[in-house]
Every structure is written in C-alpha cells, then in structure tokens.
Specification:
By secondary structure, the chain is an alpha+beta fold. It has one helix and four strands.
Length: 94
C-alpha cells in the first residue's frame, strides 16, 4: 500500500497514512488536533528496501561518483619462487 502525506490546516506537523490505491483520500483527520488535513504531494520512495540485492545495487551505484582511493599496493602473500639450482644463479635477472 502506498503512503500518503497529509498537512493539517491548524499548522500541526505533517503526518503520513497508508491507504490502498483504490481508495485515495483527499483529506484525513489530524491525529494531534482532529482537524481536517489535506493530502499533499510527497517525495516518492523509490529504491527503498533492505534486501541484499538492493544493498549491492546501492554499493555499486556509490562507486560511480565516490570511488575508493588506493594509497598503496595491496600486500601480497605470494612468495616469488626461487630455484635452488646453482646454474640458475648465472642467468640474468629481470
């Protein structure tokens, strides 16, 4: 169900209510003062979710304008293989 934002005529804080799309109200009762409150246009809740796919998409989208900066080479746990053959010591090194 979509969420609708209402503004009280008496100046109370805006409030939200959930209604089915088949019955969109133009007005509602203010929960603070019980005056009539008109429905206003609110910001759409696009991309709101807490699934693993949504978190991955948000992280991927964030790297487009805020890439992580690398300050050095990553530490390598791989050792360069060395030969114990004495003939290999005479070869030129790269």
């Amino acid at each position: 169900m979509p969420t609708y934002v209402f503004r009280c005529a008496e100046g109370c804080v805006d409030f939200t209510e959930r209604h089915p799309m088949s019955a969109i109200p133009d007005a509602a009762r203010c929960p603070s003062c019980a005056a009539s409150a008109r429905r206003i246009v609110g910001a759409p809740a696009l991309g709101v979710g807490d699934s693993a796919a949504m978190r991955l998409q948000d992280a991927t989208r964030a790297t487009a304008d805020r890439p992580s900066v690398v300050t050095g080479l990553p530490a390598s746990s791989r050792r360069t293989p060395t030969s114990s053959n004495p003939l290999h010591r005479k070869l030129p090194r790269p």
